[in-house]
Amino acid sequence: MSSTGARPLNVAAIQQSCSADKQESLATSERLIRQAAKDGAQLVVLQELHATLYFCQNEDTATFELAEPIPGPTTERLSALASELQIVLVGSVFERRMNGVYHNTAVVFDTDGSIAGTYRKMHIPDDPGFYEKFYFTPGDASFNDGRNGFTPIETSLGKLGVLVCWDQWYPEAARLMALAGAECLIYPTAIGWDVTDDQDEQQRQLEAWVTVQRGHAVANNLPVIAPNRVGVEPDPDGHSDGIKFWGNSFICGPQGEFLARADSDNEAILHTTIDRNRSESIRRIWPYFRDRRIDAYGDILKRVRD
């Protein structure tokens, strides 16, 4: 993406609401993908777990029935779309890897419909309303070649640094992707408010989410694509008022500048054109990578510095 003389890249991030009916949610995704491609998108990115409601609000063993192998029904549907529309497509699957091992997995399809690679979510939260450790095993390696999980996925449009949701709070993940040659950072997301939080707290959370990802763009001189879901999804157990997913999907450039941003309530297709030469240009004038003190960072591998 960042090689000198590269042509601009038309990208789209899709923000949608989801249904308890998997086929209905996938039909919504397909409708929005088709519109994005019709409008000229070459790379289309879907949000985290776009085929289902966000089921991690409670712990229920029956929910594992939603999981699928890769390849499986959802990947076959997305593969056919990528091939038909001649796009690179980033989708999301609740992956059944084997009995008792499930992952939150982003799947990247190239323009011929082939699976270019997968990324299994590495950082797994366990917070009120976000009980993901019950469902997801942390990623260990990419699906296609066994390399370290923080490895970009090579496509016909360049190397995509795909991460997932909770990973977006970790500068280490973004930096490792950048060091491995990622040409953009992609964060499919499902994040929202406890509807009982006051407006000031909601605003602080939203601004923190936006700011940290823009910071990864700045620190690594890379564009960031961050699609999120919208809509209120009830707590299946009725212990809370559910989650209002805050939308605000955005795409920013390698200096953190907004290129496109959605609102908090509506489905949206964010379109923008990424200048694939800017990362190279910016790294020449802000040479963070040249000046890194790799001889002094050993303690980053410790849990705590005593």
- The total strand number stands at 17
Main β sheet profile: 6 strands, mixed
Work out the helicity level.
10-25%
CATH superfamily: Carbon-nitrogen hydrolase
Ends distance: 41 Å
CATH topology: Nitrilase/N-carbamoyl-D-aminoacid amidohydrolase
Report the total helices: 6
> What is the overall silhouette?
globular
Give the overall pLDDT as a whole number. 94
Query: What is the top-level CATH class?
Result: Alpha Beta
Concise overview:
24% of the residues lie in helices and 26% in strands. The protein contains 6 helices and 17 strands.
How would you describe this structure in keywords?
306 residues, alpha+beta, Nitrilase/N-carbamoyl-D-aminoacid amidohydrolase, 6 helices, globular
How would you describe this protein?
The protein is α+β, with helices and mostly antiparallel strands and 306 residues long. It has a single domain (9-301), classed as Carbon-nitrogen hydrolase (Nitrilase/N-carbamoyl-D-aminoacid amidohydrolase), CATH 3.60.110. The protein is built from 6 helices and 17 strands. It has helices spanning 22-38, 73-85, 171-179, 199-220, 278-285, 288-291; strands at 9-15, 43-45, 88-98, 101-109, 115-120, 126-127, 130-131, 153-155, 158-162, 184-186, 192-194, 224-226, 230-233, 243-246, 250-252, 258-261, 268-274. Strands 5-4-3-2-1-17 form a 6-stranded mixed sheet. Strands 8-9-10-12-15-16 form a 6-stranded mixed sheet, with helices on one face. The chain has a 3-stranded antiparallel sheet with strand order 11-14-13. Helix 1 (22-38) packs parallel to helix 2 (73-85). The chain is globular and about 55 Å long. It starts with 8 loop residues before the first strand and ends in a 15-residue tail after the last helix. The model has no long low-confidence stretch (mean pLDDT 94).
